[in-house]
Every structure is written in C-alpha cells, then in structure tokens.
C-alpha cells in the first residue's frame, strides 16, 4: 500500500485522541489513556497497531499546543550523518580497515579500546556499527574463508537438542486474522520431538517457555542449539542455560549451519500436515490439537535416516539428560527483566497490561521481573516486591469508600 502523507497521518492520530478532548468529567486523563491503550487501531497502510499511554499523552499535548500540524513527525535533520563519531575515531577506523581488510569490526573496536581512543560509552557501540555500515567499513565478504559444514549425529538422547521456528498458517482470533509460528525442539540422536506447538508470535519468551517445559518432562540436556535471531541476542536464555549447566550453542541470524535435522522435520510438516491452501484448523487451539495428533503418528512412522521410528529409537537408546531434583526451583532462572517507567497513577505497563507498584515514585524507571508463561504476577525493584494487575472495578469501589 502507498505510504500516507503527513496530513493523512495527522488526521488519523487526531481521530484517536479526539475522545480525550471531550471526555467526561468523571473520568480522569490517566483512566482515559489506559482505556485507549488497550485498543487496537488500523493504520492507513492497513496494519493493526496499539500505543502506550505515554505515546497517546504526547499526541494529546502536542495537539493542544500546536494544533493539527503538531501531530506530524518532524524528520531528523541529521539523517545519514554521524556527528557523534569523533574525527579521531573515524580516521583510525579507516586506517585499520586499509591495513587489515580481513579484520572483523569487533577486532577494530578492540584496537580503539587498546589505544585509549574509545571508552566503550561515547559514542555507543551501535553508533559505531551504523557508521561503519554507512562508510562501508565492514569486512569484505569475499575475503572470509568458507569452512564447509560436516554432517554429524550424536549417539544418545539428550546430547543435543535443537530448536527453531517455522512460519505457519493464519488463524482467526477475536474476529481478526493472525499469523502463527510453529516452535519445535527436536533431539539430534533420535529425531524425537521433545516439545512443539503453534503460537501467535516468534519471541524469546516462547523459546524459554518451551525449554522449561521440556526440562520438566525429560530433564536437562547437555547442549541446546538455537538459530533464532531473538534468542541469539537474549541474555535471559544465556543466563538460564548457564545456571542449569546447559551448553548453549547459537549461530548468527541468517547463517543456519548445523540445523538440517529440524529443517527436515519442518519440510515434513509442510508436506504432510500443512499441505494445501486450507489450514487444518481456524483457531489456535484447534490447530495445536490437530498437530499433536500428527506428531503422535510421526513418532511411530519409520524414519528414512534412522531405519526405525523416532519413538523406537528413543526407547531403545540411553538418555543422558540429568533429572532435576525435586527441591530445585528452576522457575526463578527463567524470569525475564524489563525496564519500565512508573506512571503518575503508580502503575507500569508490561505487554499491554498495567500493574500497580505502590512503593515506586512516579517518573522513575524500575526493573520488572516476570515469567513469560504467566503474567498474573510480576515483581519489581531490587527487593522483588510483588505487583498485581490493575483491577479498575476494585479501585472504583475503593475510591467511593
């Protein structure tokens, strides 16, 4: 679809915040902002989006101070430039690239640190990477040495689990079409599907949720391989695997080496389960139910590479997974952390839900810890105080009393 012009975008934003200009006196601005933030809006290009209360608040005050033109986005004047990169650093990067065409950018930055030209804070590492991209300072891909991948196979169940996502069919959710993603964890030695399911997003939270469920069922594997871009940069997954004694293996996004077995499984899913234009089900629950039945039959069929079924190979081979002691709590290891802003009504926003943080000061930012699979309770602050979701009805009765 064509990109909307500035006037159309400003009118569209005004249509969202216009209710704030004519709200009832009984409803405060904070309550109105929270109500609007829970909705989804269709943009002029056809995409459905939602906005935080803070974004809607900014639009509201921009309109009150500058009218309709103030709702447009002012283009940055420094687009395409990198004024924050000092000349000494830029000149040294050009010198290092001319002398060492095979060096990766990380080694060049390490040389800047060794020469005391860069303190690792100003400019930021991301700024230097963008500057190198603009100035064509990255290593020539033709100079990199190609090392061919060799086929491999482990001997026992649990020596290596590999996980990945597959783009699935679209389903109906609350009257709207949503894309699904299949996440699967497969054992390398037996081709047994340790855990799998369809979800409506592709994120690190899902990867960690599925890994924890697999560990509860089978025990801790020795190695866990993932090639997902989100998990590649996730410190939470690295922290959980390190504390559980699991060797985490990952490759950069776009370089899927060594995951041929899970890709072969995905091809079987495409050919046998998702074959045809019609989806096996129109709801997420129905899709997962049908897929569980298909995986059960997949485990019992003869695998062309194994000569036996994955279930037979799983039952006939030794498992090297370490069982978890009953007294060990692994849930705290899978907690994820977000830095959230405290609003004027002493709440924080996390995944489109509001939580009350009574002891926090409005305007400050606090660390919020949460479980990816259960958002009914979160914890905040260095003392890990519990925070419950906001109950508007209960707060209304409390105000009356």
- Which CATH architecture of the largest domain is right? 2-Layer Sandwich
> What would the average pLDDT be, to the nearest integer?
82
Main β-sheet description: 5 strands, mixed
The CATH topology of the largest domain comes to Nucleotidyltransferase, domain 5
Task: Give the CATH level 1 class of the largest domain.
Answer: Alpha Beta
Secondary structure elements and their pairing?
Blueprint: H1 6-21, H2 29-37, E1 41-42, E2 48-49, H3 53-66, H4 87-99, H5 105-114, H6 125-134, E3 161-173, E4 176-187, E5 193-199, H7 204-218, E6 223-226, H8 229-232, H9 235-244, E7 247-250, H10 260-273, H11 284-300, H12 310-316, E8 336-341, E9 347-350, E10 353-356, E11 365-371, E12 374-380, E13 385-387, H13 392-400
Parallel strand pairs: 3-6, 6-7
Antiparallel strand pairs: 1-2, 3-4, 4-5, 8-11, 9-10, 11-12, 12-13
Helix pairs in contact: 1-2, 1-3, 2-3
3D structure, described in words:
This protein is of the alpha+beta class and 401 residues long. The protein folds into 4 domains: 6-71; 87-143, no CATH class; 161-316, Nucleotidyltransferase, domain 5, CATH 3.30.420.10; 335-400. The protein is 37% helix and 19% strand. It has helices at 6-21, 29-37, 53-66, 87-99, 105-114, 125-134, 204-218, 229-232, 235-244, 260-273, 284-300, 310-316, 392-400, and strands spanning 41-42, 48-49, 161-173, 176-187, 193-199, 223-226, 247-250, 336-341, 347-350, 353-356, 365-371, 374-380, 385-387. The chain has a 5-stranded mixed sheet with strand order 5-4-3-6-7, sandwiched between helices. A hairpin with a 4-residue loop joins strand 12 and strand 13 (385-387). Helix 1 (6-21) crosses helix 2, helix 1 crosses helix 3 and helix 2 (29-37) packs across helix 3 (53-66). The longest helix is centred in the C-terminal third of the chain and has 17 residues, at 284-300. The chain is globular and about 75 Å long.
């Amino acid at each position: 679809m064509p990109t909307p012009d500035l006037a159309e975008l400003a009118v569209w934003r005004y249509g969202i915040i216009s209710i704030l200009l004519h709200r009832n006196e009984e409803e405060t601005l904070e309550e109105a902002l929270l109500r609007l933030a829970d909705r989804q809006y269709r943009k002029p290009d056809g995409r459905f989006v939602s906005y935080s209360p803070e974004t809607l608040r900014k639009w509201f005050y921009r309109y009150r101070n500058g009218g309709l033109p103030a709702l447009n986005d002012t283009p940055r004047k420094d687009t395409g430039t990198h004024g924050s990169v000092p000349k000494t650093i830029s000149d040294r990067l050009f010198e290092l690239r001319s002398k060492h065409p095979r060096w990766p950018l990380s080694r060049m930055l390490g040389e800047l640190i060794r020469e005391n030209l860069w303190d690792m804070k100003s400019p930021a590492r991301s700024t230097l990477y963008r500057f190198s991209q603009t100035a064509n300072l990255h290593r020539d891909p033709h100079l990199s040495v190609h090392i061919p991948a060799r086929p491999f196979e482990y001997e026992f169940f649990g020596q290596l689990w590999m996980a990945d996502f597959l783009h699935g069919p679209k389903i109906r959710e609350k009257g709207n079409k949503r894309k699904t993603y299949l996440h699967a964890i497969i054992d390398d030695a037996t081709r047994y599907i340790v855990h799998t399911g369809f979800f409506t997003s592709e994120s690190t939270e899902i990867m960690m949720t599925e890994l924890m469920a697999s560990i509860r069922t089978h025990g801790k594997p020795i190695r866990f391989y993932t090639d997902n871009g989100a998990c590649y940069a996730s410190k939470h997954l690295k922290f959980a695997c390190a504390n559980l004694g699991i060797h985490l293996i990952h490759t950069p996004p776009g370089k899927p080496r060594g995951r041929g077995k899970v890709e072969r499984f995905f091809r079987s899913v495409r050919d046998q389960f998702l074959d045809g234009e019609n989806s096996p089900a129109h709801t997420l629950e129905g899709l997962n139910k049908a897929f569980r039945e298909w995986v059960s039959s997949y485990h019992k069929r003869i695998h062309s590479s194994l000569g036996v079924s994955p279930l037979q190979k799983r039952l006939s081979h030794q498992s090297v997974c370490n069982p978890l002691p009953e007294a060990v709590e692994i849930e705290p290891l899978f907690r994820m952390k977000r830095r959230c802003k405290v609003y004027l009504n002493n709440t924080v926003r996390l995944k489109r839900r509001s939580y009350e943080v009574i002891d926090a000061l409005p305007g400050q930012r606090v660390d919020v810890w949460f479980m990816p699979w259960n958002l009914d309770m979160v914890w905040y602050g260095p003392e890990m105080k519990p925070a419950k979701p906001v109950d508007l009805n209960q707060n209304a009765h409390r105000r009356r009393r």
